Amino acid sequence: MSTMQPGSRTQTQASWDKELALLCIREHLNREGPLLPILHALQEEFGYIDEAAEPLIAETLNITRAEVHGVVTFYHDFRRAPAGRHVLKLCRAEACQAAGGDPLAAQAEARLGMAMGTTAPDGSVTLEPVYCLGLCAIAPSAMLDGRVVGRLDQDRLDSLLAEAQQ
Amino acid sequence: MTLRLYIPIDAGALAVGAEEVATGIRTAAARHKVAVDIVRNGSRGLYWLEPMVEVETPAGRVAYGPVAPGDAESLLTAILGNGTHPLRRGPTEEIPWLKRQTRLTFARCGVVDPRSLEDYRGHGGYQGLERALSLGAEATVEEVVQSGLRGRGGAGFPTGIKWRTVAQTKAPQKYVVCNADEGDSGTFADRMIMEGDPFVLIEAMTIAGITVGATKGYVYIRSEYPHAVATMEAAIPAARRGGYLGARVTGSSFAFDMEVRVGAGAYVCGEETSLLDSLEGKRGLVRAKPPLPAHKGLFGQPTVINNVLSFASVPIIMEKGSAFYRDYGMGKSRGTMPIQLAGNVKHGGLFETAFGITLGELIDDVGGGTRTGRPVRAVQVGGPLGAYFPRALFDTPFDYEAFAAREGLIGHGGIVVFDDTVDMAKQARFAMEFCAIESCGKCTPCRVGSTRGMEVIDHIIRNENRAANTALLEDLCHTLKFGSLCALGGFTPYPVMSALTHFPEDFGAPSRLQAAE
Questions:
Q1: Domains of chain A and CATH, by start
Q2: What CATH number does the domain containing B463 carry?
Q3: ipTM
Q4: Which positions 367-396 of B are in contact with A (Cβ < 8 Å)?
Q5: What is the pTM of this model?
Q6: CB distance from B182 to chain A under 8 Å?
C-alpha cells in the first residue's frame, strides 16, 4: 500500500499562470457552492491565492470581487503569499497546552529565530499555530507538511525543526 | 499459514509511529520468511497504547502496545513463539479499559478495515438502512425520536425532532449535511469514526436522506483532518459501487448521493448556520435563527444538519430499535456518549459509556490521573467554550442537565485534564484570545468584547484596580452571553467565569479556602 500521507504538500508548485488558474476554476463550476473547492484547488496548484485570481473567480461565478476577497481573507487556510518550503504547524489549543505545548512552541520560535505565523527569510519554513489537530490524547501535537506528530517532546521537536530547516 | 495483524492507520496512531511499526514488522516478517497480512484498521481509541498491534489468534485478537518501531523484531519473534512479550496486553476485548465501555456508536471502530465495504457488512453494517426501508419514513423518524438521541455536537437538541421538521416541510430540494468540523480541543471522536468506520456515517446520512426526502448529502470536514477526508473520499465511491448510493439506493425507489467538502480553518464553521454559509461558498457568518435550518438551510432549502456522532448513532438505533438505545443513560440524556479523555491524562482516549458516569470516575479511575503524575487541578469539559471544573465538582454525572446546573456543558464530550501547574488566569485569558481569533465578526459583543476581555484580564493579572476590573469582566461576560447569536460569543464566558469562580486565587484574590478561614 501507499505510505504517502494525505495532505502532504507537493514540492513542485506552479508559479502564477492565468490559464492554469482558469482550469482550476472551471473544474468546479458544475458543483453547488463552488467557491471553497475553487480556492482549495488554486492553493493546491500555486501554494497560495494570488490576488490576480480574485477578479477571474468573480467574473466566472458572476459575483463581485469584494465577495471573493471577503471569502479568501475570512478563512485562516488561504494564503496571500507562498509559504516556505516546509510548513510546521504546532497545536496551541487547550489539550496541548495542558500537556506542555506552550514551552515547546516558545522553543521552536527561539530555535528558528522567528515568530509564530511567519516565514523564514530564506524561504525554508513557515511556522504556524493550529487550533487542534484532533490528536488530543497524544498531546502535544504538530504537523509538518501534512505529516502528523504526537507526544511531542524536546527530542521530537528538535528533529522536526532540523527537517524543517532543510 | 498467513499471520494476520492489525495496525491502525488512524491519524493518532500514525502520529506516534504506526507506519514505521508496520514497515518494521513487514521487514522482520520477510527476514523470518513468514507471510503476514497487515490490516490497517481504525483506532480502538486506547491512545495510551498506540501504536497498538493486534494479532489474530484462534481465541480472538490479542493486543500489544505501545509498540515502538524498534520493537518490531522482538514482537514478531514473540508472536511466532508463545506470545510472551513485555508489551503484551492480552485479548483486546478483555483489556479492562475497553471491556468496561459500552460501545454502540463505536462498535466497529478499530475492529474493521475502514476501506472494506464487505467488512462493514460483515459486522452488521447496513442492517439499519434495511430496517428503515422496511419501516418507511414516518416510522423511522419516530424510532429516532423515541430513542432520545440528542445532538452530539454539543447543543443537545433532539435529533428526531430535526428530522421530523424537515420531513414535514415541503420543498423541491432538501439536503442532509454532516457537521464534521470538529474544532473543539480535546475532541477527536468524529475523526476516529471517519477514519475507522466511514460507512456508518454514509449509512446514517442515507437513512436521513430517504427519511426526510433529501437526495443530496454533504460531509463538511475540517481541513485539519486530511486523513479523515481521504478515508471518506474513498468510502463514498465504494458505497456507490456497492449500490448504497445513487439513483436507486439498494435497488429501492429512493435516490441519495453525497460528497465531501473541506473547510478552511475557521473554528466558527462548526456552528451549523455558519457551516451552511461556508458550504454555499460564503464567509462563514452565523445566521440569525429563525428560520431554522430545518426550514431554510443549505441554499435556503430544508436541511437536516447533524454532528458526525449523532448520525453515527442512528444505524444501531434503527437496527436494534429505539428502546434498546434509550435504555442506556440517565434523565433526559439517553443512550451512550463517546467521551474523549485528553490533555495531561495518563490513559487518554475514547471512552464510550452510558450517560451518568461521574466526572471523578472518568478522570481518576478511567483516565488514571495525570500523565505527569502531579495532582489534577482542573478539567475543561466540552471544548474551548466549556467550563473549567475543580475537583470539588467531580461528583457531577455526565449528563446534559447536570452540567448545565453547574454552569458547565458537556459539549461534544471532550475532557481536557490539567495538573496543578496550570495558571487559570492564563487559561481564562486564552478563552478570550481564542474567541477574538475565531469570531466571525457578526455580533459586536463577540467581535469586540473578546479583545476587551483579554485586556481586562491582563489588568486583573497585573493587579490594576482588581476589584473594579473583576466586576467589569463579569459584566462583559454577561454581555457576551446574552448579546451573541451563537455559542462562540455566547459560551466563551463559561471558561472565563468558571476559572474566575472556582480558582479566584489565580487572579490574585484570596483562595476560597483561605477566605473561609
A1: 18-74 (no CATH), 86-164 (3.40.30.10)
A2: 1.20.1440.230
A3: 0.95
A4: 371, 380, 384
A5: 0.96
A6: yes
